[in-house]
Amino acid sequence: MITRIPARWLAATVLCAALAGVAGCHRGMSKEDAQMSNPEQIYQRARKELNSSNYELAIRLYEALEARYPFSESARQARLDLMYAYYRSNEQESAVDAADQFIRENPTHPRCDYAYYIKGLVYFEAVPNFMERFFRVDLTERPPVDGLKSFTAFQTLVQQYPHSIYAHDAERRMVYLRNRLANYEIEVARYYMKRGAYVAALNRAQYTIEHYDGSPAVPEALKIMISAYRKMDLPDLAEKTQAVYQANYPEGEGGAGKEKKSWWHFWG
Description:
mainly alpha
């Protein structure tokens, strides 16, 4: 099987072929950096820049290390640091590529949990946030693809590495994502109700109940089902659903389906 190598790493290979040569292999690297010939020496310098939040230079050094010493132990550790550096420098695609490559090449490595965690974080931060709600962005036109990817990455982490130091945070983020995904289904169901597409609205509401049982969106899903059945002139089904709603929510859930606290406090 042919392993895809990110384009920027190919570029780093070419540019750093003469790492011990002249002025340096990339912008941001000094002549002193370019002349380092020991992989551990390069790694330590890159780590220093990473700890100093100088992510651009850290990335250049890590890429140079991988290009010149791809099979060294320092290069393997560099791959883990590199995905974090990409993440912190907002190079989301590169971060995911680096995480995927590490998992693919080291499926039994004990640090794969970290790779899944980085993937989850990258996609998590791409999920629509409170600012989009504040400015009334139509979320029905934004399928939660990133939310699903984030949830899947965190879920894999929690299931395969339950004792990971990242598992607890991943679980809390999964709760938030689960509620956001359920809310998306409700938004779409409401949209269909306004359009008179009652069967479609009913299907979305049923999907929410079946897949996100226990989420704050479930009461609203039941309400939509009741309304859809009535609009479709199916009073018996409407009454049965009403009975389910009253049995589970005797005092009503007027605010169901809405987030009750800011998204950045979900883990608090």
